[in-house]
Amino acid sequence: MQVSKTSIADVKIIAPALFEDQRGFFMETYNRRRYIENGIDETFVQDNLSCSHLGIIRGLHYQFPNPQAKLVYVISGEVFDVAVDIRQNSPTFGKWTGTVLSGKNRKQMFIPAGFAHGFQAMSDHVLLAYKCSDFYDPAADRVIRWDDPDINISWNADVPGLSEKDANAPYLREVPANCLPETG
Fold first, then answer.
1. Using alpha carbons only, how large is the chain's radius of gyration in Å?
2. Opening angle at CA 77, ends 75 and 78, nearest 5
3. Which among 35, 62, 73, 130 is annotated as catalytic?
4. Which of 61, 62, 73, 117 is catalytic?
């Protein structure tokens, strides 16, 4: 397993060890001991699977007051995956980092609690899986606008497919301070 840093501290890209032969491949998508050895000490309590089609953007989602860390990877297809630091007292508040995750490159992105998460489907059909460090709570469900000019994410879409919730989301500067996390 190889772990790479990103432009924002604590967000990491993971390349799990892959064992390939003429039959196909095998990889561990998660091994708590190996992740702890690489500085990712989260207890994940929920796994989610998302299916999306080309051009769809989901996000920027987060939970507050019970923020979730996430371990994101793609089973099939390709996405541009993004994490936005929304921790109020962080030196990288409002900054984003992103990477391509795909069924071919088999990379993962670890997103700590206190970040908003989003992705854009870059292939016709995407299956994206992610582990969460806290249970989904509909009352804590929050969203920030995908095209917030202050965040300025380099999406590959002018008019993406969006849910009504994502299309009507507030800009980060409009989110009340009491609805944003702080650094630990």
1. 16
2. 105
3. 130
4. 61
